[in-house]
Records
---
Amino acid sequence: MRLLNTTRGTVLAEDVACARSLWARMRGLLGRDEMRAGTALEIRPCTSVHSFFMRFAIDVVFVDKKGLVLQTIRPLRPWRLSSYHWRAAAVYELPVGAIAASGTVPGDVLATEPRA
């Protein structure tokens, strides 16, 4: 899947992996050394994230069930905890710089589409 900012017409990631099972959501990015440019991890459902035991910083985008961006964190450094977002349906974890490069801000709308 690709992750698009439909408000700005930009691409946040060309390759989105999904973590929807309890185990996959708990594991997240743990055990990895980095996130490659152009990748993202969608965690659904998700109302908060942490970076305990992580080896690198990430950009984080919280969205509601319609894809409305509720909050962006750039970057979330290792050993940190995000705030809780009761309206969030999902979170996208991205390489540092992806939010800035796409111009994504709260109020924008994100959507996924199959890769071409």
---
Amino acid sequence: MTEKDLLSLEALLSNSPHQVSLLSNAAAFLYEKLGDVCWVGFYLVDDKGDLYLGPFQGRPACVSISRGKGVCGTSLAEGRTLIVPDVSKFPGYISCDAEACSEIVIPIKDNKGNVRAVLDIDSSSTGRFSEEEPAKTEIALLEKAAEIVAFRILK
């Protein structure tokens, strides 16, 4: 993932006013651009404050996740990016795909700072996501990608 990819993502998402279409293209774009990932998708916040499955690329996934549960629900509750180099060491990890070994979840916030969705990315490699370089730089780019998505879907 590069700065140039962010410009391409922004251009791709500028062509539709429909949330499902935008999220579908964003998931497909990130899935294609990122190496060593087995799942890329979005979970959206429902009326009760929990998550439900949105557009994604990869194997079938959990349909709903409660606030505060698993990596996605914890990211929602805490309103921050969670980087999990080894999902087997995350307390309360929810296994939707047995292949997933590492994960990053990035909250998508509205202009008031409320989390309205999360971007969830899984890898079948332990340590694919970490706070060490070069992953740290890629994570910063993914957080910018989440901001681009937020701007387009939360207008």
---
Amino acid sequence: MTAGVDKPTIAIVDDDLSTAQLVQDMISTERFDFQTFALGSDLLMSARLDSFNFIFLELSLPDIEGFEIIEMLADKKLRATFIVISGYDYAVVRAAKLYGKSFGLNMGRAPARVNVVVA
């Protein structure tokens, strides 16, 4: 990228650091800036929350469930694209995607190369 031009930013919210690293490895790290959060509350308190272009969200976190995070982020009217990543059954992940859409969030798809259950 040209000097002085900000790269798109990606937040990865997952308490399993190996999964967060896998997601990051599957995406060109030269084109994006990444920030990883092990807790949902850390994402919610991030000073950069409004600047994320993409948020990869694990549904099962130690502090706040993903569905609750979806509600909180919808209240903030974020324009990021949300991508649900989870080891939960496909039906649960699909429900999370529909839940986010019901709040008006931009719920996207993970790249096909990401080796996790995605909506």
---
Amino acid sequence: MNIPNFITLLRIAVTPITVWLIVEGHLIWAFWVFVAAGVSDALDGFLAKRFDMETDLGKYLDPIADKALLVSVYVTLGIEGYVPNWLVILVVFRDVFIVGGALLFETMTHSLTMQPLMVSKLNTVLQITLAAAVMANIGYGIELDGAMDALVILTALTTASSGVTYAVVWIRLWGRMEEDR
């Protein structure tokens, strides 16, 4: 177990704490725990790459941690009425689609490699930013109405395009593999 993987496990561990803080109405604390989790995502990636500590476990664990945190937070924010339900559905569906697609691709081809797409990385940043902005907006009473609307739209667009892009990549890879047979 190396340091980046340990940091990733900590991110998974704070997921239920963040959810509990949101449900209990402690949005300022939820904001700071969530921000720390977001920073940990960048930190574990930096450490793994910079100090040559990338592992196969980390390549799978990191996206699992991201999805666990983001889906849990979005579902909770949606249930509490802080983000639109349609966005929650889109975020959850995209992640279920990607995980399901990855499992199907691996089952059918035995050749899945975990390579996050640039649009997916941008989407993750926007999802984190939006969730943090929502918690800051409510917890601190910061008025971000126009910016919040734009952030919701950008997050929705990158969420949808990320899911579609993964589907296109898998279809192309599958097609190449079929041609090679």
